[in-house]
Amino acid sequence: MANYGCTIEWSREGAAFTDLQYKRAHQWRFDGGAVVPGSSSPHSVRLPFSDPAAVDPEEALVASVASCHMLWFLSLAAEQGFVVDSYTDSAEAHMGPVGFGRQAITDIVLRPQVSFSGPHLPDQAAYDALHHVAHERCYIANSLRSAVRVEGSWRAA
């Protein structure tokens, strides 16, 4: 079994807090050294308290699903002898009500545009099957119903 993680870092930096006038910008740090700027979505928290140039959690979720799907698609295509030259996906997630006053990502739409070359090209049925199996194998898409536990701690500053 593999474990995956990242470190999320945010600091108040002296700003007032209980008036809700604090910056939501933060950083995601990954074990390979990548640092990604994160923030709340400007759809959720108005400017200047969110950072529209940063990745928000909703964007990260749709990017994770699209990336996982693409990686499986590429692997399956290669196994079947299809040569993929490019793969571009303009994926989109939709937020909506799920009852009891709560909101959630209610659906994610992947819109891959794939270019193949070589003597062995898929027909429409083979192309559709690649996407079907990629979706079935995508860890992220299969995880969206997973439990989330909070196992934190706190201290006085």
UniProtKB/TrEMBL annotation:
- State a single Pfam family of this protein: OsmC
Note the InterPro entries from the entry: KH_dom-like_a/b, OsmC/Ohr_fam, OsmC/Ohrsf, OsmC_Ohr_Peroxiredoxin
Q: What is this protein called?
A: OsmC family peroxiredoxin
- Native organism: Ramlibacter agri
What is this organism's lineage?
Bacteria, Pseudomonadati, Pseudomonadota, Betaproteobacteria, Burkholderiales
